[in-house]
Specification:
heterodimer; A: 724 residues; alpha+beta; 6-stranded antiparallel barrel; B: mainly alpha; 3 helices; elongated
């Protein structure tokens, strides 16, 4: 069938269906009544200046008559080309623009002109994306890439919306365009049912899969079936089971993790029981933990007796004021005397999630599901006089994450629940003690601390470590040493972060390794943002230190790593760093310090008393010294005369890492050896004046005065100025 | 926040003695046991059965 290369026209559902009728040879009245067409029509009308009208006058369409879609081509070669009926090989593509005054003539002039492609793109209007029409009857929506809304339409509730997006680049007759979205596809009932379409969108959205490597619907369905053929044939597709979905995910080198959510059976059996409540809270927590890190999730739902359906969760929305439903589930906030269930429940940011944005192949891209009375409701048509929502009851979630992520949400959640609980136990215990002692000041402080710990809101999610560090350096500002230590920490590709918020501000943050073995110590580090919480952790650390001996004998402890970190003593190297500065390589090595490409070695390592006979040396001589990596004192001669070979500090340490370094010279008037920190290679530019003073005091008292007990030492003046 | 930090500074005055430390260990053991039990229940209700894995998503 001959197709025109391009057409430009105002957008309307009728015009779109007329094109689809021509390409697919399907009856117009079938197409116009399609649920997906109604949804896409609403979606596009909302981008128009006047969304209430039937037609959007400022939304324009450009039809690309012949378009080769790689996935359809794959499906065509494997299946449709072998049908007796002749199905065309080429698709058509329709592009949408808003705020556009484009006409067929003006578009022709744009194409003719010699302007740069970017200027041409700007003249088309705001690009909203495209729809690929495959030449199959009825199920023609091969790919939809439409720009999602930044925020809700009529956002009276102030919903904060977050969705996964990827950049799709398009070349429209040489004009470069792009749209940030996730591709949507309608099932064709042949190679794909809902589960395949949902997997197809899942792979498109997945951060570990490049858009060029997304498998076609044919490949997805085929990979979902076992290698050893069973009785059932994959095609025409009758849907996929959860097991098959997991297999297909694993085929793409991702790790699949199915989770049962609740399902109708559980809802019917336990409408008001705490287990169901916890189940819903867990559902929100699991969804948030992975979705916030841009991992899409497959959700299997039960459609009120109609059967099981699969959708792809790509985003969530929440109101900062919280979700009334979640509050009613959580119950009493006071942990004192509360039952075990409220101990284990966790006040989480995730509980505020009140809507999900899903690619639902029965409906359209970024379909909104609203949480209401423990059900997810789908409203299809905003223009419908009495929209009857469909109830989507979640049956299971299927996560597909990077295979390096081996530690999953429940373990991290358990650590957070336990940490909060044990700190409160200790605070309650101390409050009882000091209440009996009638110490009102401490009793009040402990009560406030209990309230602060109890009101914590957790924000637990996975992070790519690079993204984590970008966020951390913007959010954390309390302690520069702690900040640098965390930013420069070697981290795995993915980490778990648990931020604890108090009154909306971050109080502290726990960091866990996501790649460890389950019995390993996954806790990595902690950053305390709020000094008030520093006092609580200090108290808790002292309690941990006191019972360290007894507690170590207990079984697996979910916060064992945190306790170890809080109660651990300073290591030998941490002590050396504190006393003599961090070790570092010399800033540079002079060519004079090399002989035949080998660093000159001089000096003597002092490990005992009076090993270096300073008194026998000329008092006019200047000596150099350095503290090496292992904290040992090394002394040598500073030869700075023009004729001599230079022998600076690197010659003491063989060019290796050292801590603070400087000079010693004899002050005959004071009869004292003066120790300074003059070293261009090991001191200058590294430390503040305060730090240098501290390190020099330690060098004199812990090294010189011990090794040379008969001699007097004092801090001397610098030859060169150090960093202010 | 600064006020809260000032109020909490007094927590540094808390002294520990061995008699109370024993009760802390006991409380901790109890809390770990209870939370693990609860976690087991939750894990059980979240575990996908073989029958669940065979449900066909086909709408």
């Amino acid at each position: 069938m001959q197709r025109t290369p391009f057409e430009v026209m105002p957008y309307s559902a009728n015009a779109l269906c007329a094109i689809a009728e021509w390409v697919t040879n399907s009856p117009f009245h079938h197409l116009i009544q399609k649920r997906q067409i109604k949804y896409i029509n609403n979606f596009l009308l909302n981008w128009s200046g006047d969304g209430s009208k039937e037609d959007a006058t400022d939304v324009k369409m450009i039809l690309e008559g012949n378009y080769i879609d790689a996935h359809y081509l794959d499906e065509y070669s494997h299946y449709f080309s072998k049908c007796f009926n002749k199905y065309p090989r080429d698709c058509s593509r329709v592009h949408f623009f808003c705020k556009s005054k484009l006409t067929h003539d003006s578009f022709k002039r744009i194409l003719e002109s010699n302007e740069p492609p970017e200027s041409k793109a700007a003249k088309l209007g705001d690009y909203l994306g495209y729809l690929v029409i495959r030449p199959l009857p009825e199920t023609f929506i091969a790919k939809v890439c439409l720009k999602p809304y930044d925020q809700e339409i009529n956002n009276k509730l102030g919903v904060i919306r977050s969705t996964i997006k990827k950049r799709y680049s398009v070349s429209l007759f040489g004009i470069p365009l792009s749209v940030e979205t996730v591709a949507f596809q309608e099932q064709d009932h042949v190679l794909s049912a809902c589960a395949t379409s949902s997997l197809w969108s899942f792979f498109h959205a997945h951060k570990c899969i490049s858009l060029n490597n997304v498998p076609s619907a044919f490949e997805i369905t085929r990979s979902a079936f076992p290698v050893v053929p069973e009785l059932e044939s994959p095609f025409p597709s009758n849907g996929l089971s959860a097991e098959m979905i997991c297999r297909s995910i694993r085929e793409s080198r991702l790790e699949a993790r199915p989770i049962k959510v609740c399902g109708n059976e559980m809802v019917e059996k336990s409408q008001s029981c705490i287990e169901l409540d916890l189940n819903y809270l867990y559902f929100q927590e699991e969804v948030y933990a992975y979705l916030a890190a841009d991992f899409p999730i497959i959700m299997g739902v039960n459609l009120n007796g109609k059967g099981f359906h699969a959708v792809t969760i790509l985003g969530y929305g929440y109101c900062d004021g919280g979700n009334a439903d979640a509050k009613s589930i959580k119950g009493g906030a006071d942990p004192i005397g509360a039952d075990i269930s409220s101990w284990n429940s966790l006040n989480s940011k995730a509980h505020k999630i009140s809507r999900l944005y899903v690619h639902d192949d029965r409906t359209g891209p970024f379909t909104r599901l609203l949480l209401s009375d423990k059900h997810w409701l789908l409203y299809l048509d905003r223009n419908s006089p009495s929209p009857e929502p469909e109830v989507y009851t979640p049956e299971n979630l299927i996560l597909g994450v990077h295979p390096k992520i081996r530690i999953h949400y429940p373990k991290i959640r358990m650590s957070c629940v336990q940490l909060r609980r044990r700190i409160i136990i200790e605070l309650l215990r101390q409050r009882d003690i000091y209440a009996k002692l009638q110490n009102s000041k401490l009793t009040l402080a402990l009560t406030l601390a209990i309230e602060a710990m109890d009101s914590i809101e957790w924000d637990i999610r996975i992070y790519e470590s690079s993204r984590f560090k970008e966020t951390f350096q913007q959010e954390y500002s309390r302690n520069s040493i702690e900040k640098i230590s965390i930013l420069s920490m070697n981290m795995p590709k993915y980490i778990w972060s648990a931020k604890a918020r108090h009154k909306g501000k971050i109080a502290f943050q726990l960091i866990f390794d996501s790649t460890d073995i389950p019995q390993g110590d996954v806790f990595m580090s902690m950053a305390v943002y709020d000094v008030a919480f520093l006092e609580i952790f200090d108290l808790f650390a002292r309690a941990c230190s006191r019972i360290r001996g007894e507690w170590n004998g207990t079984s697996v402890d979910p916060i064992g790593g945190i306790i170890k970190k809080l109660s651990q003593q300073e290591s030998h190297f941490e002590e050396l760093n504190r006393k003599f500065g961090d070790p570092k390589f010399p800033m540079y090595i002079k060519s004079d310090e090399l002989v035949e490409h080998i660093i000159v070695q001089q000096g003597q390592k002092i490990t005992g008393r009076n090993q270096y006979e300073l008194t026998k040396l000329k008092s006019s001589q200047i000596y150099i010294w350095a503290i090496n990596y292992h904290g040992e004192l090394v002394i040598g001669i500073d030869t700075n005369k023009p004729k001599d070979k230079k022998s600076g500090h690197p010659t003491l340490l063989n060019g290796g890492p050292g801590r603070i370094a400087g000079e010693i010279k004899y002050n005959s008037r004071q009869k004292t050896w003066e120790v300074n920190s003059s070293s261009g290679r090991y001191t200058k530019g590294y430390y503040t004046a305060k730090e240098i003073n501290n390190y020099l005091k330690n060098v004199i008292s812990l090294r010189f005065e011990i090794y040379f007990p008969d001699m007097k030492f004092a801090i001397g003046t610098e030859k060169k100025l150090v960093k202010a | 926040m600064a006020n809260l930090a000032a109020s909490f500074r007094v927590l540094r005055d808390i002294k520990f003695d061995n008699m109370h430390d024993k009760s802390l260990v006991e409380s901790w053991k109890k809390s770990v046991h209870e939370d693990f039990e609860m976690q087991k229940k939750i894990d059980k209700s979240f575990a996908v059965s073989a029958a669940d894995m065979q449900k066909q998503f086909a709408l």
